[in-house]
Amino acid sequence: MALLILGIVLFLGVHLIRVVAPGLRTSMIASIGEAGWKIAYSVASILTLILLIYGFGQARDMTPIWSPPFWMSHITILLMLFAMICLVASLLPAGHIAVRTKHPMVLSVKIWALAHLLSNGDGAAILLFAAFLAWGVILRISLKRRQRAGEITLRPFVSAKYDLYAIIIGGVVWALIIWKLHAWIIGVSPLVM
After folding, report:
1. Which of 46, 84, 102, 141 could covalently link to 170 via disulfide, CB atoms 3.0 to 4.6 Å apart?
2. Which range marks the domain in which residue 155 is found?
3. How many Å apart are CA 77 and CA 81, to the nearest integer?
4. What distance in Å separates the CA atoms of residue 58 and residue 8, rounded to the nearest whole number?
5. Metal-binding: present as a keyword of the record (predicted)?
6. How far is residue 158 from each of residues 65, 108, 136, 180, measured CA to CA in Å?
7. Above 70 in pLDDT, residue 193?
8. Are residues 97 and 173 in the same domain?
9. Alpha-carbon separation of residue 181 from 69, 131, 172, 176 (angstroms)
């Protein structure tokens, strides 16, 4: 469990640098350049993600804290469709989904975390998904403050066709995850929860 906690703290800490130490990014870019910062940030993200995944794998044998009802997995599967659509919308030029949700990737992570909290009752899963949900809430509040301060601007609307693309691509990715990818990557089929 200690490795999981360390992985969560380090991974989410790296992804909260602008919130907890707003000047660090700017000073690092001034010191090592933007390319150097991106490389350091990417390496730190990958290494802490590996630690988080390894720690989660080690902590998975914990006794369940609660047993979700069997139908809760159906709600999780449905919520994950919306999470995938938001994720894809965040990667495309802005359509209505991206403009109205403002930060679709953050929303995608929050939906993913909430969905998995609903259908997982062991301590490691609760810790992991609650931490990511809290991260999403903290980041969204920070983004809203930065937007009000004029530090960031939201993406302008480009075309509704990108909503259609987000729905189609997100639906295909969701179907692939349900069909095989979740079982292949995570080791558990969402259809057998």
Report:
1. 84
2. 66-193
3. 7
4. 13
5. no
6. 46, 20, 26, 34
7. no
8. yes
9. 24, 24, 12, 6
- What's the Rg (C-alpha) of the chain? 18
| Res 106 pLDDT > 80 | yes
Same domain, 94 and 10: no
| pTM check: above 0.85 | yes
Give residue 139's identity as a one-letter amino acid code: L
Tokens of 116: 């998995």
Q: How many domains does the chain have?
A: 2
Place of tokens 């909290």: 117
179 and 133 inside one domain:
yes
State whether 145 and 114 are in the same domain: yes
For 23-66, what is each residue's pLDDT tens digit?
898 899 999 999 999 999 999 999 999 999 999 988 876 678 88
For residue 53, the one-letter residue type is I
111 and 16 in a common domain: no
Residues in the chain: 193
Q: Where are the alpha helices (DSSP H) in the chain?
A: 2-14, 17-20, 22-59, 72-91, 96-101, 104-119, 123-148, 161-176, 182-186
